[in-house]
């Protein structure tokens, strides 16, 4: 089903999206300052539209986890939706091998998006225990935009920013993902096959920040440079 109304789409190409992403992260609370305490939900759209780039996306996301595990005991819960009302969430995983096995076992299936279930799951988790961030990777939105926005706002109240990463050019996904990030106090960025390396750096930076705070991110920036250095500079500029 289609969302009830459209949210205005922010203009600009991929570089502009990345610049806005870094600017938004600057204003995030400095979470994860103690190494080994970060918990993050990583939610993937596993519907059939993502099949052509699925293997590439798994590799990028795997690099993100590897970078985070290097700096602390980051615990990640993998969640995904696909098919007819299929939604799954793993236990909290601190072993990179277990996480990799869980990710590579997922296969895409036809079906509609279930972002509302992802957000409700994140909210329920945040009510039970501390969750530092929710990362959402997808390419479309087939749900009511206002319902999703309301849930994103509630996640923001619980201190769970949404890092929304959009694959492709779908204008509705662009608009709604922007709102989810804004209302939760998170950040948004679009990616494609042409920006895979940039997405890898940004995802890794988010995970490292959740796991180890600014010190860990600073160490990461010295190794990676580029966008990660820009992210670190803006975090240090936070009033």
Major beta sheet, specifics? 6 strands, mixed
How do the SSEs run, as a string of H and E? HEHEEHHEHEHEHH
Describe the oligomeric state of these chains in a short phrase. single chain
Task: State mean pLDDT (0 to 100 scale).
Answer: 75
Number of domains: 1
- Alpha plus pi helix count: 8
Radius of gyration over alpha carbons?
16 Å
Strand order of the largest sheet: 3-2-1-4-5-6
Q: Mind telling me the CATH superfamily name?
A: von Willebrand factor, type A domain
CATH architecture: 3-Layer(aba) Sandwich
* Percentage of residues assigned to helices: 40-55%
Number of strands: 6
Low-confidence stretches: 1-13, 31-36, 234-239
Form type:
globular
Strand content: 15-25%
Instruction: Fill in the CATH topology.
Output: Rossmann fold
* SSE class: alpha/beta
3D structure, described in words:
This protein starts with 13 loop residues before the first helix and ends with a helix. With 239 residues, the chain is an alpha/beta fold. It has a single domain (39-236), classed as von Willebrand factor, type A domain (Rossmann fold, 3-Layer(aba) Sandwich), CATH 3.40.50.410. A hairpin with a 3-residue loop joins strand 2 (75-82) and strand 3 (86-89). The protein has helices at 14-26, 54-69, 96-104, 115-128, 145-157, 171-184, 196-224, 226-236; strands at 39-45, 75-82, 86-89, 133-138, 162-167, 187-191. It has a six-stranded mixed beta sheet with strand order 3-2-1-4-5-6, with helices on both faces.
């Amino acid at each position: 089903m289609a969302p009830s109304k459209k949210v205005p789409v922010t203009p600009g190409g991929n570089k502009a999206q990345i610049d806005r992403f870094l600017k938004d992260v600057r204003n995030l609370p400095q979470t994860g300052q103690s190494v080994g305490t970060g918990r993050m939900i990583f939610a993937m759209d596993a519907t059939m539209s993502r099949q052509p780039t699925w293997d590439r996306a798994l590799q990028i996301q795997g690099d993100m986890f590897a970078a985070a595990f290097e700096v602390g005991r980051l615990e990640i819960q993998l969640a995904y939706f696909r098919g007819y009302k299929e939604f799954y969430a793993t236990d909290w995983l601190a072993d990179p091998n277990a996480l990799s096995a869980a990710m590579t076992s997922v296969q895409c299936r036809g079906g509609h998006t279930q972002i509302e279930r992802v957000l409700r799951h994140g909210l329920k988790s945040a009510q039970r225990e501390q969750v530092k961030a929710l990362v959402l990777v997808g390419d479309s939105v087939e749900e009511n935009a206002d319902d999703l926005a309301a849930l994103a706002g509630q996640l923001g109240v619980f201190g769970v920013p949404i890092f929304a990463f959009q694959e492709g050019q779908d204008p509705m996904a662009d608009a709604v993902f922007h709102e989810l990030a804004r209302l939760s106090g998170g950040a948004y960025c679009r990616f494609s096959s042409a920006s895979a390396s940039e997405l890898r750096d940004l995802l890794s930076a988010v995970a490292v920040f959740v796991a180890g705070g600014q010190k860990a991110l600073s160490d990461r920036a010295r190794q990676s440079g580029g966008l990660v250095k820009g992210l670190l500079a803006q975090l240090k500029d936070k009033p």
